[in-house]
Design a protein that fits this description.
Elements: H1 2-9, H2 15-22, E1 27-32, H3 40-53, E2 57-62, H4 69-78, E3 84-88, H5 94-101, E4 107-110, E5 121-124, H6 126-139, E6 145-149, H7 155-170, E7 180-182, H8 187-199, E8 206-209, H9 212-224, E9 234-236, H10 242-247, E10 251-253, H11 256-271, E11 279-282, E12 285-287
Parallel strand pairs: 1-2, 1-3, 3-4, 4-5, 5-11, 6-7, 6-8, 8-9
Antiparallel strand pairs: 10-12
Length: 303
């Protein structure tokens, strides 16, 4: 009889009451540096895809700028507003992750190596992708390469830089730190880095940028300085954002949506008290397009 009335009235249990009964909020928090980067919406979409199938919601917490990162997340944990925290791309430092783990809240690190064995990591093959990208430039006959890297201490940036160096060593080319430029993972940063290289008189015929945003900024700067892409300088990025396909940017494809899915599966298993592996490493794929292939048309729109 009760079930019949529920069906006829289209009744759905009150969320708060259900949460109190189950002692869960059915909410996962994901910390991001910002929403500007083209990769983060894909990660969120992957998380939501898995979370919604299990009756969970995803709460996005932005930790960019000068906000007190750990304090913001600690408040969520202390007040039990969420059931698990997924931290993406080093938005929380290793020290902050360790400190927050003391609250016994399930945590997962994405694109960041976990500092604790009890906190699983979902990673992708940064170094392998960087080796593929750099080796492609070398195979195209480019011998004078520069690298636009992200910030020192950032896991992705460090691994991609390491892959760049390994590829040079494998090809018998010199590794020279003066040919590595900080590009801040941004379009403007990539443009500034290339301008610095040109102003310093550094000659280069190939460029590997640690993400697509820097690669796009680098190409814009090269064109402003009278350089042709890819005839004078072949350019390769990393991530395969939507714009990369449109303009013809060679890049390394990262399965960002699958990162979100895998992280959510880890989080849900931890909530249920299940044992999980320490990490999962996803494969990357090199995509060759016009920016590194003479004879193909580059579709770069100047702003």
């Amino acid at each position: 009889m009760v079930l019949k009335v529920i069906k006829e009235m289209r009744y759905s249990p009150n969320f708060i009451a259900r949460s109190l009964t189950k002692n869960r909020t059915e909410t996962l928090a994901v910390t991001l540096p910002d929403i500007v980067g083209g990769v983060f919406p894909e990660i969120i979409a992957g998380m939501d895809e898995v979370a919604s199938r299990h009756g969970y919601h995803v709460l996005v917490v932005f930790l960019g700028g000068a906000r007190p990162h750990s304090a913001t997340v600690e408040k969520l944990i202390r007040n039990r507003r969420v059931d698990a925290v997924v931290t993406v791309a080093s938005t929380l430092s290793d020290q902050q992750v360790v400190a927050l783990s003391e609250w016994n809240m399930p945590m997962v690190c994405v694109a960041q190596k976990s500092p604790l064995a009890i906190i699983p990591s979902v990673l992708f093959d940064n170094m392998g992708g960087a080796i593929s990208a750099t080796s492609h430039l070398i195979a195209q006959g480019r011998r004078h390469l520069i690298h636009l890297r992200g910030a020192q201490g950032n896991y992705d940036a460090d691994e991609r830089c390491r892959g760049f160096r390994v590829a040079l060593e494998q090809a018998g080319l010199p590794v020279d730190a003066s040919r590595e430029f900080a590009g801040e993972f941004s379009r403007d940063g990539g443009a500034r880095a290339v301008s610095r290289a040109l102003e310093q008189g550094i000659e280069f015929d190939g460029l590997f940028a640690a993400n697509d945003e820097m690669a796009i900024g680098a190409m814009e700067a090269l064109i402003r300085h009278g350089k042709s892409v890819p005839q004078d300088v072949a350019v390769v990025g990393f991530d395969d954002v939507d714009l990369a396909h449109f303009i013809g940017l060679s890049t390394v494809k990262v399965p960002h949506r699958e990162l979100g899915r895998a992280a959510t599966r880890f989080a849900l298993d931890l909530i249920e008290g299940k044992t999980v592996s320490e990490s999962e490493v996803l494969s990357t794929e090199f995509i060759q397009r016009a920016s590194s292939t003479p004879g193909r048309q580059l579709n770069l729109l100047q702003s």
